[in-house]
DNA sequence: AACCCGGGGTA
DNA sequence: TACCCAGGGTT
């Protein structure tokens, strides 16, 4: 049900308190009719999938400096993009980012389509991102539903159904409430509200522009919403990795398979990661030394404990797995975090030798 | 519909 | 520790 008074209160609050972000157009420019660049909106929204604003900002600045337009990104080598994405997580996003940029250039003349429906056909653009780009970049009245919006709706309407079962209900409530005017600002306003006032714990209901219409607050249950079905405990998986350095300083690395965990990223040769330990074979014959300690890292659905071995090998070494990456082409920042942790731990050992 | 997929900040 | 996050793809 539309609520013009609530919409006005929210937009007033947004105009006064909108968070500054590199991909946003400031209020002054917006009043002069400046629209955000669809490329920058798209890039920021993909980076923001399951990732916080604080984590995204530096990556966004780096990407737009390296590749100012979608055509620049489409022309970039895969390894360059995967390397720049390293550390941000959910690496399927980076693969789909490139696919999408190349599709925009090849199929849409280098311009993003301006409807939610057309945006939905592009790789890596789902219901949330399609609505966000349509509303923010193209001023279309699309309903944006992310974790913030789900929480705000669950509280505003005191929805007791637990997530994820409640998703359709919360989406319908958000759609019914979406106004026709200023769709992009409205979408970002609800999300800002969820991020800064209607927070998961200890919501600041006393300063909320929607406090009067909020059933959750009236019933005193806002902080307990949305309800969630319990999650499964994460199992512990074990693995071994081998870090070999050649005499010329090159490191033995692999490009991981294009799909699955850390797909398409650089990594150290090693065993599979399983709950039961696995012996495994080193990738090259050498005098392997055990690295004291272990790497601990938590993924979406398991905890990993990684045992490391390190060796210095001759120029004549012939590895059965992996490729020696020359020192000048190896940047530790190109590694996903678990692999960078392994490098850091093994490097400490090298100093002692 | 269920499952897979990172990483960091926060309480 | 557990939870949270401007979700999407695959099967």
Provide a quick synopsis of the model.
41% of the residues lie in helices and 11% in strands. It is built from 14 helices and seven strands.
Describe this structure in words.
The chain is an alpha+beta fold. The chain folds into two domains: 4-224, Hypothetical protein, domain 2 (Endonuclease III, domain 1), CATH 1.10.340; 236-352, Nucleoside Triphosphate Pyrophosphohydrolase (Alpha-Beta Complex). Helix content is 41%, strand content 11%. The chain is built from 14 helices and seven strands. The chain has helices at 4-17, 27-31, 38-47, 53-66, 70-74, 78-85, 92-108, 116-119, 127-138, 147-156, 167-177, 183-196, 215-218, 337-352; strands at 236-246, 251-255, 266-267, 289-290, 295-298, 303-313, 323-325. The strands form two sheets. Strands 1, 4, 5 and 6 form a four-stranded mixed β-sheet that branches. A hairpin with a 4-residue loop joins strand 5 (295-298) and strand 6. Helix 3 crosses helix 4, helix 10 crosses helix 11 (167-177) and helix 10 crosses helix 12 (183-196). The longest helix has 17 residues, at 92-108. The relative contact order is 0.11. The mean pLDDT is 95. The structure holds a DNA duplex (11 and 11 nucleotides). It is an enzyme of class 3 (hydrolase). This is Adenine DNA glycosylase.
């Amino acid at each position: 049900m539309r609520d013009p008074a609530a919409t006005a209160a929210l937009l007033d609050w947004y105009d006064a308190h909108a968070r500054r972000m590199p991909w946003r157009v400031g209020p002054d420019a917006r009043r002069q009719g400046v629209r955000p660049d669809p490329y920058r909106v798209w890039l920021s929204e993909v980076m923001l999938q399951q990732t916080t604003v604080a984590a995204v900002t530096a990556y966004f600045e780096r990407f737009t400096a390296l590749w100012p337009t979608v055509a620049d990104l489409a022309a970039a080598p895969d390894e360059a993009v995967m390397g720049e994405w390293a550390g941000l997580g959910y690496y399927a996003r980076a693969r789909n980012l490139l696919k999408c940029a190349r599709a925009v250039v090849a199929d849409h003349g280098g311009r993003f389509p301006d409807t939610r429906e057309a945006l939905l056909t592009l790789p890596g653009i789902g219901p949330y991102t399609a609505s966000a780009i349509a509303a923010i970049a193209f001023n279309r009245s699309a309903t944006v539903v992310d974790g913030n919006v789900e929480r705000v709706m669950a509280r505003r309407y005191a929805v007791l159904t637990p997530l994820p079962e409640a998703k359709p209900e919360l989406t319908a409530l958000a759609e019914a409430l979406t106004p026709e005017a200023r769709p992009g600002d409205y979408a970002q306003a609800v999300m800002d509200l969820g991020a800064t006032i209607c927070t998961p714990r200890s919501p600041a209901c006393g300063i909320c522009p929607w406090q009067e219409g909020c059933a959750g607050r009236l019933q005193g249950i806002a902080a307990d919403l949305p309800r969630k079905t319990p999650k499964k405990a994460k199992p512990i998986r074990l693995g071994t990795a081998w870090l070999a350095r050649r005499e010329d300083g090159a490191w033995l690395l692999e490009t991981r398979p294009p799909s699955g965990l850390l797909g398409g990223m650089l990594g150290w040769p090693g065993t599979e990661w399983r709950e039961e330990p696995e012996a495994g074979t080193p990738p090259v014959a050498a005098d392997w030394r055990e690295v004291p300690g272990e790497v601990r890292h938590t993924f979406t659905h398991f905890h990993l404990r990684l045992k490391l071995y390190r060796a210095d090998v001759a120029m004549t070494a012939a590895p059965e797995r992996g490729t020696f990456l020359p020192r000048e082409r190896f940047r530790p920042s190109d590694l996903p975090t678990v692999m960078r942790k392994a490098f850091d731990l093994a490097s400490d050992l090298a100093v002692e030798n």
